[in-house]
Amino acid sequence: MVFPSKKNVLRWQALEILGITRGMDLHLTPRKFKARTTFFGPAPFDIDLPVTQTQALVFNSPHSGRYYPERLLRLSRLDAIDLRRSEDFYVDLLFEDAATAGAPLLKATYPRVYIDLNREPYELDPTMFYDRLPPYAKSDSDRVYSGYGSIPRVVAYDMDIYKSKLRFTKEQSRIENIHKPYHRALRDLLAKTRSMFGWAALIDCHSMPSSRSMSMLSLGRYIKAEEKDGNPNPDFVLGDRYGHSCGPELSDLIEETLTRQGYSVLRNNPYAGGYCTKHYGKPADNIHAIQIEINRSLYMDEVNLEPKVPAFERLTADMSDLVGELTGLNLGQARPLAAE
């Protein structure tokens, strides 16, 4: 099922939930480029491409996929609503004006709970599987220990996803047919952009829970009972790997623009940038990367998972203005990394 515009996301909540339970495609924006698929199911990504790329920017929304395969629903112990707790709700729609401004927007089809595109491809928890993982699997990261590998074990609020263990030989297709093609597309976009302009900047777009305690849980960190309802998150968190993934001009411009719009902003706390930011952000090679986390309470009801219509439209307009501000940036000169 394909809805034609972002406005429909504000009107089709019942149909959306119905669509998820039937494994339907819930992308809500027109498709300018659709990847080919080599396995049963929708293509792993869509790209909104400008008619002519005029900006050295690449926007990326790896966690906003809304296609929940029927097989996932059968394997999971959670209902459709709880499965969505880790989804970056409608973030791709908040930045859908990127193509109009002259920059591509890469959008995931599948949800984070099925395959996390902001992880290394084989960052896997061996306790999830009956069979043995390949020797090159990375199973010793904090994210894996916490259940947030490339094939996650838990969703937000630390809820286990699956009824029983999985067979890796069956689930490996998520990596080979979704994760790897997605990142090939992202690499190609960045390489083409740098070739065209001499530099490229990846804007990695995400959303976060409204409270710091829920953010800690989503990162797999233990939270004391007395802390669970306190410590609200700011409106935005910018992750630039503590100055290592992009030139300071990029972080400064985004923070200044958001602050001028009236939002509260922090850097690198509690999110310093994930795999995409760390892997692609190489300022010395003229590829910059920054992660933007948006507080979900700004535009949606976190309990019912429904957008707040006026707030959603206002935030979308502000993100369009942010994109416009970024179009005046020039990061073409290589620069040293931030000091350790």
Account of the protein in words:
By secondary structure, the chain is α/β, with parallel strands linked by helices. The protein has a single domain (6-115, 167-210, 236-322), classed as Zn-dependent exopeptidases (Aminopeptidase), CATH 3.40.630.40. 30% of the residues lie in helices and 14% in strands. The protein is built from 10 helices and 12 strands. The protein has helices at 13-21, 70-75, 80-83, 91-94, 142-145, 168-197, 212-218, 248-260, 275-280, 309-326, and strands spanning 33-34, 45-48, 57-61, 105-108, 154-155, 159-160, 200-208, 236-239, 265-267, 287-295, 300-301, 306-307. It has an 8-stranded mixed β-sheet, sandwiched between helices. The longest helix has 30 residues, at 168-197.
Give a short summary of the structure.
The chain is α/β, with parallel strands linked by helices. The chain has a single domain (6-115, 167-210, 236-322), classed as Aminopeptidase.
Instruction: Note the run of SSEs as H and E.
Output: HEEEHHHEHEEHEHEHEHEEEH
Helix content: 25-40%
Query: What is the CATH architecture annotation?
Result: 3-Layer(aba) Sandwich
The CA-CA distance between the termini, in Å, is 49 Å
What percent strand?
Answer: 5-15%
How many runs of DSSP E, i.e. beta strands? 12
Structural class: alpha/beta
Q: Describe the main β-sheet briefly.
A: 8 strands, mixed
Shape: globular
